[in-house]
Amino acid sequence: MKKYLLLLFIACQSSVLLAQDWNKTPYETKSLSSDAIKDVYVETSGGSIAVSGAAGEAPRVDVFVHGNNNQELSKDEIKKRLDEDYKLEISVSNHELHVLAKRKHDGGINWDWRRQLSISFKIYVPKNVDTHLGTSGGSIHLDNLSGNENFSTSGGSLHVDALTGLIKGETSGGSIEVSNSGNDINLETSGGSIHASNCHGKIKLETSGGSLHLDDLKGSINANTSGGSIQANSIEGELITGTSGGSVNLTRMACSLEASTSGGSMHVDMDQVGKYVKLDVSGGHVDLKLPANVGMNLNLSADKINSVSVKNFSGEWEKTHIKGSINGGGIPVNVDASGSLNLTFN
Predict the structure, then answer these.
(1) C-alpha to C-alpha distance for 295 and 275, rounded to whole angstroms
(2) What is the pLDDT of residue 15?
(3) Is the distance from CB of 253 to CB of 291 less than 8 angstroms?
(4) Which residues, including other chains, have CB under 8 Å from residue 94's CB and lie 6 or more apart?
(5) CA nearest 59: which of 21, 97, 86?
(6) DSSP-assigned letters across all residues of 12-53
(7) Which contiguous run of DSSP H or E holds residue 288?
(8) Where does the DUF4097 domain start and stop, copy by copy (predicted)?
(9) Buried b (16+ CB within 10 A) or exposed e, 195-216
């Protein structure tokens, strides 16, 4: 718990510093107007990274620098510390942009932490670029890009919007927000929640320290958490999701569904049923609403099943178990619940 709270604190601090940085005048700006950038490589050990392909911005790299604990420094003092303690490089070669901010020292006993700097970058590039980003001390923001995006941070959150292509990111110290993006999304955090909205394609989301919020997703979706609840609304395609530490609330489902929890109750409202429904609940009760006019094969077991009788059912209908077909059979619906099951049809 202490480790999780520390990671959460670091993530919140990095988000605040990021917002403060972007609202300031850059310490330095390097123009990229004459370079056809196709790949972006960024590494910083003490700041945040933002890469944008939004139209209307002149291609450039804005550098933001502040002192330890967000200390305000003069430009002369910043230059002095950079020259003495840091390696700061911005270069372009073979259509590749390379941005580096790194301490010259390893942080040994002779390192004065009061001289530490946070060096962040906000980069404007053409839309069709690949990115390779890494920071150990800040958040990462990407928007309006189309390509292969690979990024990681151990000390901040991830913010992704309007990306198309291969999207792979991870953080061990913050939350994840992804929106309006698609094709192939793979995002992971060990220290925060995940909120995904208006995305499509192959989507994999994983957190071991927070909740999942899924809204308006289409495609093949695999989303799991070991430390929080799951909320999903308006999902099409296929959803495989599970938690060992919270409740599950799924509404307006129009998909194939596999959901599980060992630490809470589950509410599932199916507008449409895909190829299958499979629910496994060992820590609470289940509320399940199914469409009444669809052919299904029911295999339901619970401590107690509460349901009104339905038309066109054939098979066994008992207090703790229902096994049979409805409307001639078809889509398999399997529920295994340790608590009660409240079954309704619409």
Answers:
(1) 11
(2) 43
(3) no
(4) none
(5) 97
(6) HHHHHHHHHHHTSPPSEEEE-TT----EEEEEESSS-EEEE-
(7) strand 286-290
(8) 69-336
(9) bbbbbbbebbbbbbbbbbbbbb
Which residues, listed in sequence order, are joined to residue 147 by a DSSP beta bridge? 165
Q: Residue 46's pLDDT is what?
A: 76
CB 323 within 8 A of CB 298: yes
Alpha-carbon gap, residue 44 to 22, rounded angstroms: 16
* Mean predicted confidence (pLDDT) in 32-39: 88
Name the pTM for this structure: 0.90
Beta partners for 174? none
Provide the residue ranges of all domains of the chain, joining segments of one domain with +. 1-144, 175-346
Computed from CA positions of residues 168, 234, 322, 292, in that sequence, does the dihedral angle turn out positive or negative? negative
Whether residue 112 is predicted with pLDDT greater than 60 in this model: the reply is: yes
Pair 334, 278: CB distance under 8 Å: yes
The whole-angstrom distance between residue 188's C-alpha and the CA centroid of its chain comes to: 6
Taking the C-alpha atoms of residue 128 and residue 59, their distance in angstroms, rounded to an integer, is: 13
How far, CA to CA in Å, does 291 sit from each of 2, 56, 215, 310, 323? 45, 48, 21, 11, 17
To the nearest whole number, what is the mean pLDDT of the chain? 90
Pairing mode, if any, of strands 60-67 and 28-31? antiparallel
Q: What is the pLDDT of residue 24?
A: 77
Q: How far, in Å, CA of 64 to CA of 252, rounded?
A: 44
| Extended beta strands in 125-247, E state | 130-135, 140-153, 158-171, 176-179, 182-189, 194-207, 212-225, 230-243
- Taking phi over 0 as left and psi of -120 to 50 as alpha, with beta for the rest, 14 belongs to alpha
Backbone angles phi, psi at 55, to 5 degrees: -70, 155
